[in-house]
Amino acid sequence: MRSNRDIPGLIIAVVVFVTTTLAAGQTETVLHSFNYNGKDGTAPKAALIADSSGNLYGTTESGGAYNYGTVFELSPRAGGGWTEKLLHSFRNNGTDGELPKGGLIFDSAGSLYGTTSSGGQHLYGTVFELTPTSGGGWTEKVLHSFYTDGWFPKSGLILDQFGNLYGTTPSGGAYEDGEVFELTPGAGGTWTEKTLHSFFGDNTDGSVPFGAVLLDASGNLYGTTYQGGTYGTGTAFELAPGGGVNWTETVLFSFNNGNDGSADANSLYAGLIWDSAGNLYGTGYNGGAYNYGAVFELTPEAGGGWSQKILHSFDDNGTDGANPEGGLIFDTAGNLYGTTYNGGAYGYGCAFELGPKAGGGWSERILHSFNNNGTDGFNPDAGLVFGSGGNLYGTTGGGGAYGYGAVFAIRP
Predict the structure, then answer these.
(1) Which of 84, 289, 349, 410 has the most crowded CB, counting CB atoms within 10 A?
(2) Where are the domains of the chain?
(3) HEC secondary structure over 68-86
(4) How crowded is residue 39: how many other Cβ atoms within 10 Å of its Cβ?
(5) In 3-state terms, what secondary structure has residue 51?
(6) Using an 8 Å Cβ cutoff, are 377 and 387 in contact?
(7) Which pTM does this prediction carry?
(8) For residue 46, which of 394, 393, 355 has the smallest C-alpha distance?
(9) Which CATH class is domain 14-411?
(10) 339 - beta bridge partners?
């Protein structure tokens, strides 16, 4: 198990955790509080990933040995609690990336891949790989430094069956409104970047894609934009590969800002997920019936096009969440889980569940309201992930014992 290796030169911290029992039958546990001490990361902005041994991996936007962000691992200890290891501290040295805002992915060999929103040779961000070494450490390699293509990637990556990486940048590209890119591995450890689509930013195309893309079995990519489209407040799009180097973009849906009385979700930060029937699901930071954000479903229509259905409109009323930034996940029963940045019982965000009702519609349950009480995390930027025991895991950019963010678990 990777967590049992002695990794020379890495910071190892024993984690103390705090438990809160909730009225809804859930228990929230703070697994790790980040500390601004030169030995830990601070301000995690991305969702976690888990390996088969129950270890969790993530990034922090700042902190670490040079205060430019980290990649970390949290491992459960046999006697209880969790142990943190810093796998990499980013540094502003003209080659390394800095300030990672997106999450990580694994390949089949156990290497980690991610992006940084700044740094690299041209200071416009990087794509990096962390590879475990035989001696127990990790080696970082910058695969691409952005410059004349996209700029400042904020999201994570996806990997196809051929080892190609795909991602987005919210700015740059041919029209400086963002792009979708592909990185292809070559001989000798080289990687080649290709812009698959540059967003135009007018009323026919989206602009400013913050979220990661989604890949289907046919090699098509799906994603969202924060701005652009018919109403200027975001789109859902599809990119289809052509016979050669060209990709074709289709705007599946333009989200409405609500000026015509509609209850569309809009201002999308996160990417999409889908169900087995091919419907797409996501969150809008704004919009919905109360303009505090919404969870939506996009369904393909028989005659072409896609229709939107709002599954839940958030209402900052002291009980519901508000302004979801992170994406969604499904469980095996078809329930949806996510977080909101604001709202909840204390105004610092919440974790929620949406379950389909037998007669139609969806029912929301608040699993946890985050609280600025000196122990709990608050204001989660990212979504959740399932880990061992059916627990939900996530991060908050603020709060915890030191005020610099936390990793938490919600146990059924």
Answers:
(1) 349
(2) 14-411
(3) CCEEEEEEECCCCCEEEEE
(4) 15
(5) coil
(6) no
(7) 0.92
(8) 394
(9) mainly beta
(10) 351
